[in-house]
Amino acid sequence: MKIKELLSISGTAGLHRLITTKKNGIVAESLVSGQKKFFAARSYQYSPLESIAVYTDTDALPLEEVFQKMKKQPPKKDIQKSELRTYFMEILPDHDQEKVYTSDIKKIVSWFLFLNENGYLEVEEEVASQEEDSFEEE
């Protein structure tokens, strides 16, 4: 998966790609527009997707692993708010229902749908093995 350089930034819509870091903030690019670069000062809260996890009854499951489970059983694009918890119970039955709110599930599902449609959730091993095969053929 290619989520290592992706961020969620408070106060902004959608996901962003980290371009560079500065001593007083970061420069990020919107994934939706692809051209809208902006400076996010330290007053913004930004969370790399690779550091986000979902609470379970025993521990926390990294978002990347949640996305892998979602790839096996993808949500409908037009999933209703009332169906979100049911869907999440199917893919992650041991998620902590007191700590994981419906709004969190909605955000995770929307991120998944966007990232999956745009190829960010391709398994890197498959991509690397395809590249190795092309080198061997030459």
Write the layout of secondary structure elements.
Elements: E1 6-9, E2 15-22, E3 25-30, E4 37-41, E5 46-48, E6 53-55, E7 60-62, H1 63-72, H2 81-91, H3 102-117, H4 124-137
Antiparallel strand pairs: 1-2, 1-5, 2-3, 3-4, 6-7
Helix pairs in contact: 2-3
Quantity of strands, as a count: 7
The top level CATH class name of the largest domain: Mainly Alpha
Rg of Cα set: 17 Å
Low-pLDDT stretches are none
Helix-strand pattern = EEEEEEEHHHH
What is the number of independent domains?
A: 2
Q: How far is the first residue's CA from the last residue's CA?
A: 27 Å
- Classification by helices and strands: alpha+beta
- Backbone shape: globular
Main pleated sheet: 5 strands, antiparallel
Strand content: 15-25%
Q: What's the average pLDDT? A: 87
Total of DSSP H or I helical runs spanning 4+ residues: 4
Helix content, binned percent: 25-40%
CATH architecture of the largest domain: Orthogonal Bundle
Q: Could you name the CATH topology of the largest domain?
A: Arc Repressor Mutant, subunit A
Q: How are the strands ordered across the major sheet?
A: 4-3-2-1-5
